[in-house]
Design the sequence.
């Protein structure tokens, strides 16, 4: 397979390190950096363009909707996954049963646990579908595990929830941007924008099915949640937005200005091409690990964790190679800006 980056992608990234840590945070394309710089300079000059642009936020909403296969009316924007999950947790009646995957990312779990009056159960990722029961109200899990790249069998879990009348919440943070992901079958999905979507912290997305929109109360609804935002600055909001926009948080404009060119880049290249590029690099790394006698966590995602090697992360960083130590493993993650040479350099350093 030809793993050379598209010319447009090469021109968009100028990092000088061997960056293999997208599962922690993605790299901003140059066009996104320019958008942030332009807005910041306008803000510093007191020009209107520095105050933020709701049209741009709505273009980002629409771009994300296209990426995950839903209508833009199903997408709410915010700043953090945990805030979206907290909104869903607040909607559940006392005593409701929530089933989560063991060891999943804390933001998908904690909002339910801290309620204190919900029944939160945990099951191994591989058996979540089997553990759905008649008392389960909601299954909350990540499509791809942050710690080690294991993928959930979303089809099996969806079938189990449908059989028992439960809803699903899927965190697509470690999936959207490299994995073709369809949000339409789920009551709720949440996605952070600063990893595989090549954005910055301060951008997150909540998708809510039309049916599930009636289950949520927009507890943090400000004027931006109104149907006509410029008529809702003062006093109670008379008319909330008809779609999922009623669950919007006030946007962090600098972050959303960065998100627009980042999502546009992914759209132009195509998630299918990104998927092929990223997973082929991960396969190259897995083959190299096998030659070195290391056994990574099984899987095919571009997130690869090697148990027992977490202590190598500081030395790799000193050598200019960015990885992460997570759950006792050395985690490397490969994205659009990663090359075969990057993978080989990591393997060379690991070989000593």
Sequence:
């Amino acid at each position: 397979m030809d793993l050379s980056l598209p010319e447009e992608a090469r021109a968009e990234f100028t990092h000088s390190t061997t960056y293999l840590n997208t599962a922690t945070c993605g790299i901003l394309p140059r066009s996104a950096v320019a958008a942030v710089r332009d807005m910041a300079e306008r803000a510093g000059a007191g020009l209107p363009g520095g105050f933020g642009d709701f049209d741009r936020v709505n273009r980002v909403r629409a771009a994300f909707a296209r990426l995950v296969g839903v209508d833009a009316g199903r997408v709410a924007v915010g700043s953090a996954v945990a805030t979206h999950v907290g909104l869903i947790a607040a909607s559940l009646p006392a005593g409701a049963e929530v089933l989560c995957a063991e060891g999943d990312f804390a933001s998908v779990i904690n909002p339910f646990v801290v309620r204190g009056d919900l029944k939160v159960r945990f099951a191994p990722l591989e058996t979540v579908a089997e553990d759905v029961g008649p008392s389960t109200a909601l299954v909350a899990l990540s499509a791809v595990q942050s710690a080690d790249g294991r993928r959930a069998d979303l089809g099996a879990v969806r079938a189990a929830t449908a059989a028992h009348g439960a809803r699903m919440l899927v965190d697509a943070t470690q999936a959207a941007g490299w994995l073709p992901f369809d949000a339409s079958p789920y009551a709720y999905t949440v996605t952070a924008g600063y990893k595989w979507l090549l954005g910055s912290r301060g951008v997150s997305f909540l998708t809510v099915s039309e049916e599930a929109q009636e289950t949520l109360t927009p507890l943090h609804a400000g004027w931006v949640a109104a149907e006509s935002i410029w008529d809702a600055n003062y006093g109670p909001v008379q008319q909330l937005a008809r779609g999922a926009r009623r669950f919007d948080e006030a946007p962090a404009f600098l972050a959303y200005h960065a998100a627009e060119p980042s999502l546009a880049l992914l759209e132009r290249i195509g998630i299918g091409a990104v998927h092929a590029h990223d997973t082929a690099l991960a396969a190259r790394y897995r083959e190299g690990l096998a030659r070195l006698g290391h056994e990574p966590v099984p899987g095919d995602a571009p997130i690869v964790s090697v148990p027992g090697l977490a202590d190598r992360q500081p030395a790799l960083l000193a050598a200019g190679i960015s990885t992460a130590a997570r759950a006792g493993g050395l985690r490397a993650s490969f994205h659009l800006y990663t090359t075969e040479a990057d993978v080989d350099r990591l393997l060379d350093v690991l070989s000593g």
